[in-house]
# Entry
Amino acid sequence: MKRILLAGYGNIAHAFEKILLEQETVGSYQLTVCDIADGNDIMDYLPHHHDEFDVVLNTSLANSIALSKMCIDYGLDYIDVGIEDGIGNPDSTPSDYTALMKEMIQWKTHSRIMLGFGVNPGILEHVYQKHKPAGSHFAFELEHDDALSSEHKVFGTWSPFMYVEEAVFAEKVVVRKDGTRVVDEQLAANGGTMTLNYHGGQRHYLPIHHEELMSMMMSCDDLLGTAYLFQAPIAMQEYCLRKGKQLTDYQIFAIPVPQNLQGSDQVGMLFWDCGNNLYWVKNTTQNKATWLRYGVNAVCWQTATGAWIAYRLLDATSTDHPHTMTELSQLMPDAIDALLNQIGLTFEVEEQPFNIEDFKNNIMCYF
# Structure
């Protein structure tokens, strides 16, 4: 029986718990929650209880690096849905992740360490490895959510605080072979957002930084550049961008986050082969269907699914260094596909979702 310590008990953790109940054999695991809301900080709790567990799953805001190193010291397996080097740390910059990724894969461990096993980072790295074109190319994580609400003027299907922190306050970046490029000034000169027309409607994207971009860049010499193009649910995006950096923490936390919403969260990888071929490998998850099945929004369920995949693959991975989804996708793609199919998280290819010239003018101008 696997004894699991779950750090944090927000929507992602709730979704993971539901996935275990749905997918795992009764009696094959024991789940214990360690949540700051109950007065239990994982960094203080684990040293006194480490011999009671086999694996730690971090869905909290605890520092991923410090917690994973603690698990290594105690001989515990570790799964993280992200790679946090300090949430809200004003000294943390996108370039830090390059050094972090290079350092991380050199660690010597005797534990199974799985870092970045959510949807992004995580499952989208597998989508990249499976669907990337032959030869030189660019690849973009692209997400938009067309969720609607009749109750709230401003709403989000995931944390407004995280959206403001990542997409409003943080630097806007693209990644090239020669490193990370900050594009705040260029973006501001072009109206503040990147725009593309999708099915007759104009979408406004912001190039936010995610650590898996570095993992992807290091995995393929033919990948010339990448970015994470993100659009929150439209009402929340319009409100946050209009208010901008005037927003206080109180205002952000006051934004209601209803869960049972119409619409879908569309997330995937947009590929361009430097010619005329542009295609989007996307997942379309219905927010209402996910709510009825798991009691959480689509984003949180997809993230929890990545953690469940890591949990299922734990015993198949080595203990000599930490792992990312990029690496496991190269080593065991069929096993990951089988798990995605088992849980019903599937992807489809949409050819030419955007006009090539529109794409070049509004996206490629930043590279």
Summary: The chain is about 40% helix and 25% strand. The longest helix spans residues 298-313. The radius of gyration is 20 Å. Confidence is low (pLDDT under 50) at residues 87-92.
